[in-house]
Write a structure and sequence with these properties.
The protein is an alpha/beta fold. It is 50% helix and 13% strand. The protein starts with a strand and ends in a 5-residue tail after the last helix. Bound molecules: nicotinamide-adenine-dinucleotide.
Length: 311
């Protein structure tokens, strides 16, 4: 399939490489020329065909003969610019050139309302748009094991499955357009809150003198059990191969979590849904980021509760 891929960063780069490995032909665009050249070289190395991955001059150029368009961009404003063109220059946007009927897949994490608005614009000119945000991080993007949470009609979901399977392991239909983003922000809201809860419980236990290993064992076989406790425990020394075991490097950064918490809190405001713990979690991660720890894994929030600097 001929795929336009726009946004070749930490996630988009390895995702696009997996599409190359699956044999697709790509036209790619990114503001970073280095990222584009890396992908072109990956195509050449994979097939010996210098044309398997071609560099495009703009999003419109990437999409002009595509059979599917994928975007993986930082935030809503970037998706809007890529699809609709920069202010005063709509001709550079995907919608200016993409052939009628070709599906668009936005894999970025953005707010559901923007997805739904962009989907209406795309539909007005005959292009269906699906939101397909991911979980699994850069490790999942590289290994091709991402989970895709897809918002689309059932027909569009069926049509997109083969492409998404080239980049992920679990492809889940969440409902109509925008519902992929809803699933994603609700999950990350809960993750942020549960991590703070586990960090509080582990810190309290350690301050009161219990061995953290023993406490973690109890939590993980009792009603406090959750992913933040049994798979990603924030207390150093309790588990191997988690960010807490390596000074909170790698993993899912505090600033990325803050972005998702911001989306959840803003979406909640729009529907008058109270999020007392979500708002509190956002403030805690904001304080931690402000203290200079935005790049650390989000489980490092335990260090703020303990009043310690990361090791
Ligand atoms: P990133 O910043 O590494 O990559 C974004 C890329 O988009 C960059 O290469 C940038 O140059 C490019 N870009 C920005 N504006 C552009 C434009 N107008 N035209 C073309 N290219 C443009 O971000 P990332 O970590 O790859 O994340 C991408 C999305 O995935 C975000 O929405 C993020 O929330 C989400 N996400 C990230 C992770 C993660 O662990 N990094 C996990 C799940 C979801």
């Amino acid at each position: 399939m001929r795929i336009a891929f726009i946004g070749l960063g930490h996630m988009g780069g390895p995702m696009a490489r997996n599409l190359v490995k699956a044999g697709h032909r790509l036209r790619v665009f990114d503001l970073s020329a280095e990222a584009v050249q890396g992908l072109v070289a990956a195509g050449d190395a994979h097939s010996g065909d210098t044309q398997q991955v071609q560099a495009a001059a703009s999003p419109a150029d990437a999409a002009r003969d595509a059979e599917c368009v994928i975007t993986m961009l930082p935030a809503a404003r970037h998706v809007e610019v890529v699809l609709c063109g920069p202010d005063g220059d709509p001709a550079r946007g995907v919608l200016a050139s993409v052939p009628r009927g070709v599906p668009l897949i936005d894999c970025s994490t953005i707010d559901p309302a923007t997805v739904q608005r962009l989907a209406r614009l795309a539909a007005a000119q005959g292009n269906p748009l699906a939101d397909a945000p991911v979980s699994g991080g850069t490790g999942g993007a590289t290994a091709g094991t991402l989970t895709f949470m897809v918002g689309a009609t059932p027909e569009l979901f069926a049509q997109l499955q083969p492409v998404l399977q080239g980049m992920g392991q679990h492809i889940v239909h969440c409902g109509a357009t925008g519902m992929g983003q809803v699933a994603k922000i609700c999950n990350n809201l809960l993750l942020a809150v549960s991590m703070v809860g586990v960090a509080e419980a582990m810190s309290l236990g350690a301050s009161l003198g219990i061995d953290p290993q023993v406490l973690a064992g109890i939590l993980n076989t009792s009603s406090g059990r959750c992913w933040s406790a049994d798979t990603y425990n924030p207390y150093p020394g309790v588990m191997p191969n988690v960010p807490a075991a390596r000074g909170y490097s790698g993993g899912f950064g505090v600033d990325l979590m803050l972005k998702d918490l911001g989306l959840a809190n803003e979406a909640a405001r729009q529907v008058h849904q109270p999020l007392p713990l979500g708002a509190q979690a956002l403030q805690l991660y904001e304080m931690w980021s402000r203290q200079g720890h935005g790049q650390l894994d989000f489980s490092s929030i335990i260090r703020m509760l303990q009043g310690q600097r990361p090791a």
